[in-house]
Fold:
Amino acid sequence: MFAVRYHRYGGSEVLCVEEVEEPHAGPGQVRIAVRATGVTPADWYLRSGMLRSIASVDFPHIPGMDAAGIVDEVGEGVTGTTVGDAVFGLVPFADQGGAAAQYAVLEAWAPKPQSWSFEEAGGAAGNIDTATRVLDALDAAEGMTLLIDGAAGGVGTITAQIARARGLTVIGTASEGNHAFLDQLGVIPVTYGPGLADRLAPLAPQGVDVVLDAAGKGSLAELVALAGDPHRVVTIADFDADRHGVRYLRSEAGQSPGWAGLPLAADLADHGRLTVPLHAVFPLKEIATAHDVSANGHARGKIVITVP
Ligand SMILES: NC(=O)c1ccc[n+]([C@@H]2O[C@H](COP(=O)([O-])OP(=O)(O)OC[C@H]3O[C@@H](n4cnc5c(N)ncnc54)[C@H](OP(=O)(O)O)[C@@H]3O)[C@@H](O)[C@H]2O)c1
Structure:
């Protein structure tokens, strides 16, 4: 099969399309003919080698952590999914990638919502997993107000909509050019950066109950002050979390509590309550450009690769 691989750490020029051996579905897994796969910041963090002290990769490495496509192999013990089903889901974590390819193995998946294109579904699973873990860790419940720092990106847009569906009020930070976009998602927009507390005060006179730092731009001290308690704040992007008494959430190998969010999110999508805003869609051969656009740090929603 064809796949994108890299053989060493480096810039996006190390990505190349080549012939590789096909993967096969192991017990509890399915294999899909990939139609689309998401690009996440972790793809280029790993590729650049900047995370090698905490998350190295085995070379050659196929990037891509989530995907959508058509099931063409069903592993031992899998029930309820058959060859020909359209699904979206996550590749096995231990491999740290593998979806930017003709075929990929998934270890968690759900039926593709009718209302989503393959592009939308291909970029959804990772962010649904993250959003579910975040909202559960914060005990986010109906009636609460959630502040998301970094609401306009891939994680922010999905977390905000799932939180809205759970009955929360969501306030999200973004640059001013993204305020109308957030408003359309049912999110109250506010500009990030110094002075956030002053701008937030008229929007949330009672304060905020829980906070997600999805930006990792050094704002944890201010976010903790806004929440009034570090236990009401989680970050997925600031490695300095400990210093602020804040929980840093990361995906771990093995069954993720976020997997339960996949069928729930598909159901929300089928009821018109969850969209996957796409910043840009690139063909597989332009994956280097897709990594560079992600690294620019201003994606409005998700960046996705289509697989021919
Ligand atoms: N630990 C985990 O389990 C986990 C899982 C997924 C992702 N992550 C991490 O979480 C972070 C977000 O992921 P993502 O996929 O959402 O990234 P993304 O889609 O690339 O996020 C881009 C967004 O960041 C916003 N942004 C840029 N500078 C900002 C600032 N100073 N303050 C607030 N927002 C700012 C941009 O808004 P503007 O264009 O309006 O500036 C843009 O919409 C990344 O660091 C990623 O590695 C961690």
